[in-house]
């Protein structure tokens, strides 16, 4: 018997697929299935995580194809972004060359994996044909009012004189200059995602059961819809200089302070008002009061992320004003500015209720402000008090006049009714979600197709001048955006009045590029952004697969853009991904030398001495410390490149391994032993097919048993694949291969049936091996075109069944018997049953007649 040689078999089968153009999408009018893996960023190499992701998609694509679907399974490149510019700055390589070289490299690596991808649809988001169409729809959204300009805050590096992306700010400092980063206001472009906030939340309900609950919840929290009230607090006391504001401008001495609350039921527990450090009123006072100005400055140097603010110690300053309580004007409260109040949420001002909000409580304890409990838990009485922990649980209002005795929900409704009646507030819904700032002061991105005219303001680039192509003659020798300092590119005439004007030099956030690529794949050469007939045929994506790190931004932006493009009439599907699967990571043990240096797995010799594992560095002989199992990363050197595995064990063994060891949603640990096991399985399968001849005579008992096992395997593998339980499908295949081996004596008809099913069941996982096996069975065509095996429910059913035993129509016991047992066997078993015996003798009954319904029930007629 010959060994299976992946080195020759795999290229041989890949060549057959290529000759047949086997993966070019066919539209034959059968039901469609669109399977898509999140397209990669062309960083340089395909890593194990990519490989696992694409192999999962391939299992879905290949099985759906066999099951009779027209399958769309495309691939492309999310190719704009910072790393290309960094390469340009650090190594003087042009971003375009760097990107396309990486793409070429990664395409070859991906092709090695034997994926059933339609490469004829490939594109990169940095292709002008792609981003030009993006510019076209961007302008359509602009005309529809979904794109607008306003001031936004950016990270400014004062030494490099450049805007930094968030990931370039490390511990509050510029990644290159090390200078403390400043916040600057810059006029930027925004997409009105907030218009779709409710629609985006509503859509999540329909994705129940089709998207991971965790992802749906994360999106809901990100959008952060909350019901509450806006409350106006009249000014009771203010410094004299505040009343001096000129006519027509806000008068801080007269205009009430507006706060947003989700807990209007706690209004009677208010003990102070707090404004954000950059609230307009704080600023006005800071202009007069040095200690307020100092406070503002201290806050500005702190991080602005919500997480950082949450962590920071509470800090504030008394602004020297007082406001009146909306329900009791005689009662006045002090106004503070506090570092935990965000300027970007609600109205940038709160009322503090220390008894029922932890932040407020920490603040009140620090500055000695009153703590007034107004909600008491069940069982507590009027003496209920709060110590160092705010009470945020359910309860009943007290110390709250007309709200006393109401539940929280009822008290909220009543408080809002009273606020509205007194014109001191209104019920309000607010969202955490902000409009999407898409301006990036970067070269390697999609140019924003706008021209700024000194007379007419921002003007659209006319349709016949699209795409606005990035100039290639740019330099990266100085920081900042090369587009902004390009000598010619940005100087144009105004399309409206023909005077000298300048192009917008900001480019689009790369999340815009990835917010619609799945729609473009339905017809990547369309002369419009989206060919609506093609989009109608293929969208939504039936199965989308990718990392959970995209649970919010990418997936939310894509859902928003689909809705916006659909409202603009460019496509009709609003919910782009009907099914979502988020896969786990590929992890690997880490190895470290005594001097702290990480060592690559290929340079490690592992020994296992009676369960005690030790590691030695191959190149130096030094003893190593075996570290944690972590996500493969360059910094810890625990990366195993797919290419290495593929060249030693073959593609199929690698594919099998990344799917076999743990459920797809969990992390999988890469171990040399694991892939060797997969490789042995490949050999075992081949041994069943190699030299197979259909000449053995029938052998009824063994044949029946093998056929039953075959149908059971078909059922289990089919259900495993459909339910994304690839590891259990593979486990079943391992077991089935052992079963086929054990039934060596089967006749050739039964054996052929078993092997024919086996070849087709392994095909999604180990497609090259499957083709070889299929050929060994005498088929000249591709297994790719063979239909998925079907199971006969009767044959796939369990061998043993439980038969209920009735006595005169009432269930009194049960027996477990082989399926299809004859009536006499069933009768004997039923009569011998202990429960039945006990019942009969206890009631003095004698069995007169036995009725057996095969595989269903036994009925004993007794009196
Ligand atoms: C009074 C109050 C009493 C509050 C109480 C909470 C508990 P969510 O639910 O996350 O939306 N808040 C409002 N605007 C804020 C801002 N700009 N920065 C920081 N905090 C702000 O949070 C809503 C609550 O967060 C609001 O309800 C407000 O505090 C605070 F027992 O008002 B609450
Ligand atoms: Zn003009």
Automatic annotation (TrEMBL):
It catalyses: tRNA(Leu) + L-leucine + ATP = L-leucyl-tRNA(Leu) + AMP + diphosphate. Keywords: Aminoacyl-tRNA synthetase, ATP-binding, Cytoplasm, Ligase, Nucleotide-binding, Protein biosynthesis. Residues 703-822 form the Methionyl/Valyl/Leucyl/Isoleucyl-tRNA synthetase anticodon-binding domain. Its main location: cytoplasm. Residues 35-169 form the Methionyl/Leucyl tRNA synthetase domain. GO terms for biological process: leucyl-tRNA aminoacylation. It comes from the Bacteria. It is an enzyme of class 6 (ligase). The keyword Aminoacyl-tRNA synthetase applies. Residues 427-590, 629-670 form the Aminoacyl-tRNA synthetase class Ia domain. A motif ('HIGH' region) lies at residues 40-50. It holds the Pfam family tRNA-synt_1g. It is found in: Cytoplasm. ATP binds at residue 634. NCBIfam families: leuS_bact. Belongs to the class-I aminoacyl-tRNA synthetase family. This is Leucine--tRNA ligase. The lineage of its organism: Bacteria, Pseudomonadati, Pseudomonadota, Alphaproteobacteria, Caulobacterales. The gene is leuS.
């Amino acid at each position: 018997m010959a060994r299976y040689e992946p080195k020759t078999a795999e290229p041989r089968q890949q060549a057959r697929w290529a000759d047949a153009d086997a993966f070019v999408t066919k539209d034959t009018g059968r039901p469609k299935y669109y399977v898509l893996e999140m397209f990669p960023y062309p960083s340089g190499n395909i890593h194990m995580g990519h490989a696992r992701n694409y192999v999962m998609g391939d299992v879905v694509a290949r099985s759906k194809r066999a099951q009779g679907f027209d399958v769309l399974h495309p691939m492309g490149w999310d190719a704009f972004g910072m790393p290309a510019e960094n390469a340009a700055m650090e190594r003087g390589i042009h971003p375009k060359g760097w990107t396309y070289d990486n793409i070429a490299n990664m395409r070859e690596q991906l092709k090695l994996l034997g994926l059933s991808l339609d490469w004829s649809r490939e594109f990169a988001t940095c292709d002008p044909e792609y981003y030009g169409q993006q510019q076209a729809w961007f302008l359509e959204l602009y005309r529809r009012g979904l794109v607008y300009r306003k001031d936004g805050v950016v990270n400014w590096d004062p030494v490099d004189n450049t805007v930094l992306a968030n990931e370039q700010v490390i511990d509050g400092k510029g990644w290159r200059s090390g200078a403390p980063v400043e916040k600057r206001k810059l006029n930027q472009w925004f997409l009105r995602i907030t218009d779709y906030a409710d629609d985006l939340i509503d859509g999540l309900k329909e994705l129940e059961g089709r998207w991971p609950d965790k992802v749906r919840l994360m999106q809901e929290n990100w959008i952060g819809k909350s019901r509450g009230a806006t409350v106006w607090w009249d000014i009771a006391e203010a410094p004299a200089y505040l009343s001096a504001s000129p006519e027509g401008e806000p008068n801080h001495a007269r205009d009430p302070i507006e706060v947003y609350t989700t807990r209007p039921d706690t209004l009677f527990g208010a003990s102070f008002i707090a404004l954000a450090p950059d609230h307009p009123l704080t600023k006005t006072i800071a202009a007069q009061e040095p200690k307020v100005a100092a406070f503002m400055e201290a806050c500005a140097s702190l991080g602005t992320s919500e997480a950082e603010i949450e962590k920071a110690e509470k800090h504030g300053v008394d602004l020297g004003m007082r406001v009146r309580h909306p329900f009791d004007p005689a009662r006045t409260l002090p106004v503070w500015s506090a570092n935990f109040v965000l300027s970007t949420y609600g109205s940038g001002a709160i009322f503090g209720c220390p008894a029922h909000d932890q932040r407020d409580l920490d603040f009140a304890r620090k500055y000695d402000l009153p703590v007034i409990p107004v909600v008491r838990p069940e069982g507590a009485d009027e003496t209920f008090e709060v110590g160092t922990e705010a009470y945020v649980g359910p309860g009943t209002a007290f110390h709250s006049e007309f709200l006393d005795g109401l539940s929280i929900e009822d008290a909220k409704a009543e408080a809002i009714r009273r606020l509205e009646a007194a014109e001191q507030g209104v019920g309000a819904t607010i969202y955490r979600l902000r409009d999407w700032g898409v301006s990036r002061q970067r070269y390697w991105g999609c140019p924003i197709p706008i021209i700024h005219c000194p007379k007419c303001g921002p003007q659209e680039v006319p349709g016949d001048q699209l795409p606005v192509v990035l100039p290639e003659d740019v330099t990266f020798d100085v920081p900042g955006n090369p587009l902004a300092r390009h000598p010619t590119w940005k100087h144009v005439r105004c399309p409206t009045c023909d005077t000298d004007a300048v192009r917008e030099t900001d480019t689009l956030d790369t999340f815009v590029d990835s917010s619609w690529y799945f729609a473009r794949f339905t017809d990547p050469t369309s002369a419009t952004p989206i060919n609506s007939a093609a989009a109608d045929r293929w969208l939504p994506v039936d199965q989308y697969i990718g990392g959970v790190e995209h649970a919010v931004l990418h997936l939310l932006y894509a859902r928003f853009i689909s809705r916006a493009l659909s409202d603009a009439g460019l496509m009709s599907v609003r919910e782009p991904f009907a099914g979502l699967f988020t896969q786990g990571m590929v992890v690997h043990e880490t190895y470290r030398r005594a001097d702290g240096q990480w060592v690559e797995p290929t340079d490690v010799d592992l020994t296992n001495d009676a369960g005690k594992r030790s590691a030695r560095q191959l190149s130096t002989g030094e003893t190593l410390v075996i570290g944690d199992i972590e996500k493969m990363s360059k910094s810890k050197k625990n990366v195993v490149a797919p290419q290495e595995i593929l060249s030693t064990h073959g593609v199929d063994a690698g594919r099998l391994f990344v799917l076999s060891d743990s459920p797809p949603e969990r992390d999988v640990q890469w171990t040399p032993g694991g892939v060797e096991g997969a490789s042995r399985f490949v050999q075992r399968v081949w041994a069943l097919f190699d030299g197979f001849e259909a000449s053995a005579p029938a052998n009824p008992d063994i044949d029946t048993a093998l056929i039953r096992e075959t149908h059971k395997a078909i059922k289990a593998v089919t259900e495993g694949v459909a339910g994304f339980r690839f590891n259990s499908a593979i486990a079943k295949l391992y077991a089935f291969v052992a079963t086929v081996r054990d039934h060596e004596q089967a006749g050739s008809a039964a054996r052929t049936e078993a092997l024919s099913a086996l070849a087709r069941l392994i095909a999604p996982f180990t497609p090259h091996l499957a083709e070889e096996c299929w050929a060994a069975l005498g088929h000249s065509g591709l297994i790719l075109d063979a239909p998925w095996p079907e199971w006969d429910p009767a044959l796939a059913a369990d061998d043993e069944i439980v038969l209920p035993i009735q006595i005169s129509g009432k269930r009194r016991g049960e027996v477990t018997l082989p399926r299809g047992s004859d009536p006499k066997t069933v009768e004997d078993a039923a009569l011998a049953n202990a429960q039945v015996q006990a019942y009969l003798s206890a009631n003095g009954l004698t069995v007169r007649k036995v009725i057996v319904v095969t595989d269903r029930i036994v009925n004993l007629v007794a009196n």
